[in-house]
């Protein structure tokens, strides 16, 4: 059975921390999406994450920390990594750094790589939980493998009810899509996944990022097909086909006779990011024949929105 713990209940954090310390799985809110948390130093608990998600392969997990001290015990911070952490932590940035020999995180969470992914979320509930546990929390997005990432506790339950011990409910996530992932090695920063911190903002701090060439998969979990709804997704659409639902952006909406959701009527990309996953989920159930998506500008957090839309639209032989 999966317990729903309202974040406003006194004792919710204590109960969740006890579950984590006894090897349990607890989904918790972050500012990006809900994470499926376990004690990152407990091999069996980490293995249970893969099992609960039904992940087909051991894709490495992000370790979530509450303090810089906790982060410094896991990975090697050079000047570049320190500058990025100073600028964006706590917040939606994940750093992939060389793993320290003394790093206590389960090797399973690094999936055999000699690096460790570290993130310090800014959500107060995430911070309280990690502090209470006193250890890093390994946490992928709290969805079944291949499904759309959850931005509410109800989304988490829709996919993982009965497979995890608890979910802390703190309402919808502010940012709405996952963290930006930057790998730092030998003083060079590379973009592994666009996300909640706009790439331009990262480059403002550390200079031009190395970017993947063509379609190369950087983070092992960055498969072409992801967030796969049942419905066929058509991107950059200016005319809606009969029977298709419309995922709109801005006020200039094409004619349509089916369901419609608008990511942001005012054309605000931050609002669009926060709405993206919930609206995709809704249209997927409301109109499984197909979803037409209007173009979204590829600037700021729009780059991450377009990345997720391309993965949702891709043919799906495999899944994360
Ligand atoms: O916003 C987020 O990042 C959310 C919240 C819960 O923090 N988490 C999240 O985790 O999106 P997940 O597991 O869905 O995606 C993590 C990505 C995967 O693509 C994985 O391959 C990559 O991070 N990753 C983790 N460790 C890595 C490493 N050592 N080297 C390269 N990529 C890594
Ligand atoms: Mg995920």
Detail the topology: elements first, then pairings:
Elements: E1 3-6, H1 12-21, E2 26-28, E3 35-39, H2 43-53, E4 62-64, H3 68-72, H4 79-88, E5 93-98, H5 107-110, E6 115-119, H6 124-133, E7 137-138, H7 153-160, E8 166-169, E9 180-185, E10 188-193, H8 199-206, E11 233-234, E12 245-248, E13 260-262, H9 269-286, E14 291-293, H10 302-313
Parallel strand pairs: 1-8, 2-8, 4-6, 5-9, 11-14, 12-13, 12-14
Antiparallel strand pairs: 2-3, 3-7, 4-7, 5-6, 9-10
Helix pairs in contact: 1-6
Bound molecules: threonylcarbamoyladenylate and magnesium ion.
Poorly predicted sequence stretches spanning 5 or more consecutive residues: none
Overall pLDDT score? 93
Annotated CATH homologous superfamily of the largest domain:
DHBP synthase
DSSP strand tally: 14
Detailed description of the structure:
The chain has 320 residues and is an alpha/beta fold. It has two domains: 3-206, DHBP synthase, CATH 3.90.870; 233-313, Threonylcarbamoyl-AMP synthase, C-terminal domain (Rossmann fold), CATH 3.40.50. It is 30% helix and 18% strand. The protein contains ten helices and 14 strands. The protein has helices spanning 12-21, 43-53, 68-72, 79-88, 107-110, 124-133, 153-160, 199-206, 269-286, 302-313, and strands spanning 3-6, 26-28, 35-39, 62-64, 93-98, 115-119, 137-138, 166-169, 180-185, 188-193, 233-234, 245-248, 260-262, 291-293. Strands 1-8-2-3-7-4-6-5-9-10 form a ten-stranded mixed sheet, sandwiched between helices. A four-stranded parallel sheet has the order 11-14-12-13, covered by helices on one side. Helix 1 (12-21) crosses helix 6. It starts with a strand and ends in a 7-residue tail after the last helix. The mean pLDDT is 93. Magnesium ion binds next to loops.
């Amino acid at each position: 059975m999966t317990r729903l713990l309202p974040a406003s209940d006194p004792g919710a954090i204590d109960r969740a921390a006890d579950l984590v310390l006894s090897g349990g799985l607890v989904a918790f809110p972050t500012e990006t999406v809900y994470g499926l948390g376990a004690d990152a130093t407990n091999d069996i608990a980490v293995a249970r994450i893969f099992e609960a998600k039904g992940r087909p392969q051991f894709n490495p997990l992000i370790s979530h920390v509450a303090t810089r001290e906790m982060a410094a015990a896991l990975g090697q911070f050079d000047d570049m990594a320190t500058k990025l952490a100073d600028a964006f932590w706590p917040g939606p940035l994940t750093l992939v750094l060389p793993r320290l020999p003394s790093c206590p995180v389960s090797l399973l969470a690094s999936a055999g790589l000699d690096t460790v992914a570290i993130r310090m979320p800014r959500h107060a509930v995430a911070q309280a939980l990690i502090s209470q546990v006193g250890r890093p929390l390994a946490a992928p997005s709290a969805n079944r493998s291949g499904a759309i990432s959850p931005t509410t506790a109800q989304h988490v339950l829709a996919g993982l009810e009965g497979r995890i011990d608890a979910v802390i409910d703190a309402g919808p996530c502010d940012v709405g899509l996952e963290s930006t992932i930057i790998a730092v090695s030998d003083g060079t920063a590379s973009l592994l996944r666009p996300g909640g911190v706009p790439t331009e903002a990262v480059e403002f701090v550390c200079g031009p990022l190395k970017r993947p060439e063509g379609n190369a998969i950087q983070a092992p979990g960055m498969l072409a097909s992801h967030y796969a709804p049942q419905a066929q997704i058509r991107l950059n659409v200016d005319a809606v086909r009969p029977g298709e639902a419309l995922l709109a952006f801005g006020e200039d909406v094409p004619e349509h006779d089916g369901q419609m959701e608008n990511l942001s009527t005012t054309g605000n990309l931050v609002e669009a990011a926060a709405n993206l996953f919930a609206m995709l989920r809704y249209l997927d159930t409301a109109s499984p024949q197909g979803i037409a998506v209007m173009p979204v500008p590829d600037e700021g957090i729009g780059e991450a929105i377009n990345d997720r839309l391309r993965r949702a639209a891709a043919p799906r032989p495999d899944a994360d």
